[in-house]
Amino acid sequence: MVHSAFDTAELIRGCPSRIDCVAIYGSKIILGTSDGYLRIYASSTSSDASDDGEVRRGTYVVDREVRGFWKRSPAAMEVCGRRELLLSLSESVAFHRLPNLEAVAAIAKTKGANAYGWDDRRGLLCVARQKRITIFRHDGSGFRGRTLSDFVDRHEPILLLRLLEQVGGDLRS
Questions:
Q1: Are 78 and 127 in contact (CB under 8 A)?
Q2: Which of 64, 171, 40 has its CA nearest to residue 32?
Q3: Rounded distance, CA 86 to CA 63, Å?
Q4: Tens digit of pLDDT for each residue in 1-20?
Q5: What is the pLDDT of residue 136?
Q6: Its GO biological process terms (predicted)?
Q7: Kind and range of the H or E run holding 150
């Protein structure tokens, strides 16, 4: 007999294009699709629409749709709750302020990246690009980048390992 450790519920049905990445923001579901759209879904029932910060069972409908949010389909996306930011990877790594999606930063040095790891508490971004790892630190006014060897000399190895764990699966390419 097979044991199921998770309950399943279909929340979104009939999205017009392939879903490439998903993030949760409070009680809303954010989708990145293959055609470069960012779609934000909210619960269709008024009782579930209370903003208590939890996704609930039921049907979700499009609350907001941003055409051309990305030029290419997004590879990854996550919500940084503490900072109220949406972090995404498409052509490069970009940060947008939530809930209005105002562009905060698009880091040009991450163009062509295939994976990233984000440490929200310390404001560190670890980016895998080709055969190189670069660490970016948010200093309040922007992001400063350092190569992995510069970072290892100055910071604790445990933090570095934690960041590398997040991107580790894609480092072999």
A1: no
A2: 40
A3: 17
A4: 677 787 788 888 888 999 99
A5: 84
A6: autophagy; endosomal vesicle fusion
A7: helix 148-154
Residue with tokens 């499009």: 62
Please, what's the b/e burial string for 114-127 (b: 16 or more CB within 10 A of its CB; e: otherwise)? ebbbbbeeebbbbb
Contact in structure between 89 and 126 (CB atoms under 8 Å): no
Q: What is the pLDDT of residues 112-142, one digit of tens each?
A: 998 888 888 777 888 888 878 888 877 665 5
Could you report the per-residue pLDDT of 89-118, keeping only the tens digit for each? 999 999 999 999 999 889 888 899 988 888
Taking residues 85-91, report their average pLDDT. Answer: 94
Tokens representing residue 117 in the block: 């790891």
Q: Check residue 132 and give its pLDDT.
A: 81
Q: Read off the tokens for 40.
A: 């934000």
**Most distant CA pair in the chain: distance in Å?**
56
Q: Is the peptide bond before 99 cis (omega within 30 degrees of 0)?
A: yes
The amino acid that residue 145 corresponds to is: G
Q: Global pTM?
A: 0.76
Query: In the numeric block, which tokens belong to residue 36?
Result: 């470069």
Q: How far apart are CA 74 and CA 68, in angstroms?
A: 11
Q: Alpha carbon 105 to chain centroid distance? A: 14
How far apart are the C-alpha atoms of 97 and 28, rounded to whole Å?
A: 15
